[in-house]
Amino acid sequence: LVSCFVAERTIHPLQKLAEEVTWLQGGQQIELASDRKDEIGMLTQAFAHLANQLAAQIDEFREERGKLEAVLNHMTDGVLIVDADGTVTLINPAAQRIFTTEKFESVIGKSLMEVVRQYQVIDLWRSAKTSNAQQIATLEMLPQRQFVQGIATPLESSLPGSTLLVFQDLTRVRKLETVRRDFVSNVSHELRTPLASLKALTETLEEGALEDPPAARRFLNRMNNEIDNMTQLVRELLELSKIESGKVPLNLRPVEPVRLLVSAGERMALQAERAG
């Protein structure tokens, strides 16, 4: 009876301890009340204190992970982390959209080539890994012709062997650059027309039209009109700048197409005559 009593007092706290260990696996706080002063009581209290500390740390880690996931999920830049073997260990939804890949949870553990399917990205990652220095490159993603700036940064200090890949979508910026380039080209073309007309009128006057006062007066009037057209073009460019800044409201009104056609025809008539 004494042996059974001693065994029961020894084994029961240990069984309770084992049950609480199982409960701790769920990240819950535990309570192990023990008023025993022997080694088992000391072990129980020490374990309870350690377990509760671990549970508190787990809660902190979960909170920090939640913050990190919130930031990654709402970033407009694509983010990937690749380990030394080229395996994707982290990816955010923006990177999923850029590379039109499958659900981002399912790509964890796959190779970078399987995820991005772009040899330029692979070269960028390898270059950063080999040089152990940050690499930046502008990439054209095919077949959707999407322009992306890729930044590969080795994470030797925090994650040895891993590389952080950040991708910024520059497609909209490139389109704006194309529009601006086309705009400059169109303005240059519009300036070329009156300048060519003025050149033709000047040459005509130099070739003898000055001796014919009516013709000279007609040519001078055309030259004056071309100068007015250039002035109007410059004024319209200034107005366009104001419109883009939102300072000038548009005043829409109907215009007869004939007025536009006649004006253009008169401007090009002399060049057409000279060209036959």
Give a written overview of the molecule:
Helices cover 63% and strands 12% of the residues. Helix 1 packs parallel to helix 2 and helix 7 packs antiparallel against helix 8. The chain starts with a helix and ends with a helix. The protein has 276 residues and is of the alpha+beta class.
Topology, pairings included?
Blueprint lengths: L1 H23 L14 H36 L3 E5 L5 E4 L1 H6 L5 H4 L4 H5 L2 H13 L3 E7 L4 E9 L8 E7 L1 H36 L6 H32 L12 H18 L2
Stretches with pLDDT under 50, minimum 5 residues:
none
Number of helices: 9
Overall residue-averaged pLDDT value: 80
Major sheet, described briefly?
Answer: 5 strands, antiparallel
Q: What is the topology, as strand order, of the major beta sheet?
A: 2-1-5-4-3
Dominant shape: rod-shaped
Radius of gyration: 39 Å
Query: In what range is the share of β-strand residues?
Result: 5-15%
Helix content: 55-70%
Number of extended strands? 5
Whole-Å distance between the termini?
Answer: 130 Å
Please give the oligomerization state of what you see: single chain
Secondary-structure-derived class:
alpha+beta
Task: Spell out the helices and strands N to C.
Answer: HHEEHHHHEEEHHH
Please give a handful of descriptors for the protein shown.
63% helix; 9 helices; alpha+beta; rod-shaped; 276 residues; five-stranded antiparallel β-sheet
